[in-house]
Amino acid sequence: MILLSNSLQKFTFVSIPCTNILGVRLVSGPRCSGRVEVGQWGTVCGAYWDMRDAAVVCRELSCGDAVAAVHDAHFGPGAGPVLKGYANCKGSESTLNECFIRRNNAYCKSHAKDAGSLQKFTFVSIPCTNILGVRLVSGPHCSGRVEVLLGKTWTTVCDADFDQQDAEVVCRELGCGPLVEVLGAAAFGRGEGQVWTEELQCRGNESEIYSCETTSPLQHNCSHDNDVGLICSDSVRLVDGGSRCAGRVEVLHRGQWGTVCDAGWDMRDAAVVCRELDCGEAVDAVHNAHFGPGSGPIWMDNVTCSGSESTLKNCRSAGWGKHNCNQTNNVGIICSVRLVSGPRCSGRVEVLHGKTWTTVCDADFDQQDADVVCRELNCGPPVEVLGAAAFGRGEGQVWTEEIHCRGNESQIYSCETTSSLKHNCSHNNDVGLICSDQQGGGLLTVVILKMLE
């Protein structure tokens, strides 16, 4: 039994063996978040308030798991009586009423005496949520179908009730860069299981979607044909290398792009960045500001990746902003593939010759060459090789060498080449291809090592 008092003076507490007398609610926050109030709606002192206590309140309110147990009137001070004591829950109770309450807590009494005002109390607050996680599925890194974890079940989200502000929060929570685009109509494929029956109402500045308000039920009759997807920008980029998949490595931290120093930088580190950017395999890991010095903060130094990480931020380093170097030590990489100006797995073929991207003549690009390009891009077998600039005319030079792949190579740079093509090719002959993973228009580009110069 929990007793509340409107008086700040000492008095005698009594207990009676009754149940379900006291209620609990969360006030001044979004659904399933707020200041904890009990009984006749008085507040709870923050002394020793922890995640076990928070878990019980979330459970009692059918609000899922506790996310945090916060203090210091995070959701504002209350105006009613104050629980004179503190909850001491084990965490397994079904209601706060079942927890043992330690009374006459000195911490609470001393704060009450500060000015004789409830405004001086340290009130407890709690955000709890049914949303336990969010992920992007069936797309490259930082892109895909939006799914939220409700309890133990991943559910898709209806495109009619997911907007720019919601997407900004998802990108931020996943450690990706700013939002690029919200896509409806199951752009990343139809999900399975349930479609979420609530609507997110984020302001756009939240750090995680569990902090967003929700409304229920949805007015829309949604199916998996309406699964929403989004594209976030990556939290790592390559700069001043002439393509999206070559250049100086820069990482996004606290909303600002910064550089990486080269102490210990090797091919395993480069492999992680190439994979994160969907740029194929690492060709080279360069040092000493090979692509020019950057500006702004130096975010990472002494990076050590195993090579299997999904993102550079998961690799060990000296810590954000900790370094013993300057911008002349910036790292760079060259990856074997880049994808520009269109959907993945289809487009015009281009190769990097030195520092110049060149198109390839359709007369000297065959099925075996296409097999290797599609394989390198993880795009499945080729569907069709298309000549006559089917994906548009490129710019710059047409490559003056012919690729001779056997068809079983894993990367295009492993194929032999011969120089001095016999054909008089122009951009009207730029070759393109469609791999089986996706069909559409765009630019498909492949790096050839400097050995091919």
TrEMBL record:
UniProt keywords, alphabetically: Disulfide bond, Glycoprotein, Repeat, Signal
The keyword Zinc belongs to this UniProt entry's keyword annotation: no
Short name of any one Pfam family annotated for the protein: SRCR
InterPro entries reported for this sequence: SRCR, SRCR-like_dom_sf
Positions of the SRCR domain: 24-120, 134-233, 236-336, 337-436
GO cellular component, as recorded: membrane
Disulfide feature: C89-C99, C158-C222, C171-C232, C202-C212, C261-C325, C274-C335, C305-C315, C361-C425, C374-C435, C405-C415
Name of the protein described by the UniProt record: SRCR domain-containing protein
Native source species: Electrophorus electricus
